[in-house]
Amino acid sequence: APAREKILRGATALADAVKPWQGARTVVRTKHLVPAMKSSGDYWDKYTFNADFPNGSFYFSYAIGDAVTDAKKMESKGRLTVDKNTWSWRNDFKEGNWSHTSGEPMSITAGKAVMSGTAQELKFTGETDGVQFELVYTPIANGWRPKSGQVLYGADSKAYDVTIFPRMKVVGKYKTAGGDWVNLEGTGNGSH
User: Fold this and answer.
1) Rounded to a whole number, what is the distance in angstroms from the first to the last CA of the chain?
2) Which among 31, 69, 79, 87 could disulfide-bond with 131, CB atoms 3.0 to 4.6 Å apart, if both were Cys?
3) Are 182 and 87 within 8 A, CB to CB?
4) What distance in Å separates the CA atoms of residue 23 and residue 187, rounded to the nearest whole number?
C-alpha cells in the first residue's frame, strides 16, 4: 500500500503541472491556413497533416521560412504507405519556385505536391515515385485556435501562431503507374 500511495502522489503532482488551455477560442477560417509571409527573419509557417488507414498511413508536411534571412524557402515532404509499400518525397524550393493563393479556396503548390481547399475541406494531391494520390480531409471535430491566434511559450513568452485540426475524416485514392485507382478511408489530424 505505501508504494501505491507514493505512485498516486506522484501522478497527482504530475497532473497539477499540466494545465489545459483556458480562454476563448476563435472559429477556424480558410484565412488561418494561408501562409503569413512575414518579412523578417526567424519566420516559419509549418503545416503537418497525418492520416491512418486500416492498411497504411499518410504524412504531409510543408515548412516555409528561414531562421536567418527574409527568404521564403519551402521544404515539402511526405509519405504514403499502403500494404507495406511506401512512397515518399522530400524537396526544397527557393522563393519563387513554389506558390500560394490566399482566396477561398486557398492553395499551396510545391512541385507536384498541392494542398488546397477551405477550413471545412482540405485536399492533398501529389505524385511521387510512380504513385499518384488524392486525399480529402474534412473535420470530425471543429478546427481550433486560441482567440488571439497565438500560444505563448518559453521563459521569454515567444508567440506561436497555431491552428489545430484534432480529428478529421480522410477519404481518397491512390494509383501506381499503370494501375487502377484504389480507394482509401481513415481518420487524421493536422496543424498549421
Assistant:
1) 46
2) 87
3) no
4) 28
pTM recorded for the entire structure:
0.82
The DSSP 8-state label assigned to residue 144 in this structure reads B
Q: Looking at the predicted structure, is the pLDDT value of residue 34 above 80?
A: yes
Query: Cell match 519556385: residue?
Result: 97
- Report the C-alpha gap between 108 and 74 in whole angstroms: 10
Identify the residue with better confidence: 15 or 164.
Answer: 164
Q: Which residue has the cell 482540405?
A: 122
**Dihedral angle, C-alpha 111, 117, 123, 129, nearest 10 °:** 0
Contacting residues for 160 by C-beta, under 8 A, at least 6 apart = 150, 151, 152, 153
pLDDT tens column, 1-16: 555 454 444 444 444 4
How far from 59 is each of 26, 80, 85, 134, 150, CA to CA, in Å?
A: 26, 7, 14, 13, 25
DSSP-derived secondary structure letter, 96: T
